[in-house]
Amino acid sequence: MKLTARYPFSAAHRLHSNQLSEDENWAVYGRCNNPFGHGHNYWLEVTVRGEPDAETGMLVDRHQLDDCVREEILSRVSHVNLNEQVDELKDLVPTTENVAYVFADWLKRGWMRHFEGGAVSFDRIRIYETRNNRFEIQANEVRQ
Amino acid sequence: MLITRRVEFSASHRCAVEGWSDEKNRETFGAEANEHGHGHNYVLEVTLSGTVDAVTGMIVDLKDVKTVLNREVVDVMDHRYLNAEVPPFDKVVPTSENIAREIWRRIVPHFSTDTVKLYEVRLYETENLYVEYRGE
């Protein structure tokens, strides 16, 4: 069985590649290339997989999941500038594709600190950049 | 990785098989068979699968996706009576199943490169009912 929890967070970014000229950057990213940056109210959905406990009927302790996502992801990205303040994104363009890879990587690395024993697995994340655009990555797509 | 773009359009339709009696259409499609037609606010979610470009950090330019969806779906179906104005629904019953298939057929040529493929079309007829189609 799978369970998904949703976490809103707000952050700023600017889409700009050092490997492209100014004109090319504008052509590829349009207004997302604005030198001053801009922001989004993102939604992060974290999906976990496992079997509900026979006694509690719960697949995962909600508080434990909230703590895990807060520690591993939200504390690093809530109300920050993704280009400037996230080490893992300093050499990457903070498109939501790249952000999804970084988040999934963080969760995968930190997972066992929160969920020892392997009864609860990290399945996938989805990031909504806006209501109309969402990005999804499976845990097994992360290169570690 | 999967990327999903959402768009909305509103259209009217009537679900009935030509050649069937009114009674049989009523029995099969219920209120959807009302001969005066009715409408829905459709919500379309198009999911693409692809690999992230090493330079741009993008699977696909979402502006291009929006352009294709507007041209192939919204401009064609929004505020139209599907049965009368949008082929093939003059001959094919415009159920959500068939509309999803038609949307897939219209957009699949635009998302068939080595790096980006059409993965799924999800069409919500209402908030409470949707169909998913993966080209099967």
Features:
heterodimer; A: 144 residues; alpha+beta; Tetrahydropterin Synthase, Chain A; four-stranded antiparallel sheet; B: 136 residues; five-stranded mixed sheet; 32% strand
How would you portray this structure in words?
- The complex is a heterodimer of chains A (144) and B (136).
- By secondary structure, chain A is of the alpha+beta class.
- Chain A has a single domain, classed as 2-Layer Sandwich (Tetrahydropterin Synthase, Chain A).
- Helices cover 33% and strands 28% of the residues of chain A.
- Chain A has four helices and four strands, in the order βαβαααββ.
- Chain A has a four-stranded antiparallel β-sheet with strand order 1-2-3-4, with helices on one face.
- In chain A, helix 2 (62-77) packs across helix 4 (96-114).
- Chain B has one domain (2-11, 42-133): 2-Layer Sandwich (Tetrahydropterin Synthase, Chain A).
- Chain B has a five-stranded mixed β-sheet with strand order 3-1-2-4-5.
- The model of chain B has no long low-confidence stretch (mean pLDDT 96).
- Helix content of chain B is 29%, strand content 32%.
- By secondary structure, chain B is α+β, with helices and mostly antiparallel strands.
- Chain B has four helices and five strands, in the order E-H-E-H-E-H-H-E-E.
- Chain B has helices at residues 22-29, 62-77, 82-85, 96-107, and strands at residues 2-13, 38-50, 80-81, 116-126, 129-133.
- Chains A and B meet through helix 4 and strand 4 of A and strand 1 of B.
- Strand 4 (133-138) of chain A pairs antiparallel with strand 1 (2-13) of chain B.
CATH architecture designation of chain B? 2-Layer Sandwich
How does the overall form of chain A come out from the CA principal axes?
Answer: elongated
The helicity of chain B comes to 25-40%
Distance between the termini of chain B: 20 Å
Number of separate helices of chain B: 4
Strand composition percent of chain B: 25-35%
Largest interface: A-B, 23 and 17 residues
Structural class of chain A: alpha+beta
CATH H-tier superfamily of chain B: 6-pyruvoyl tetrahydropterin synthase/QueD
Quote the beta fraction of chain A.
Answer: 25-35%
CATH class of chain B: Alpha Beta
Strand arrangement in the largest pleated sheet of chain B: 3-1-2-4-5
The largest sheet of chain A has its strands arranged as 1-2-3-4
State the oligomer: heterodimer
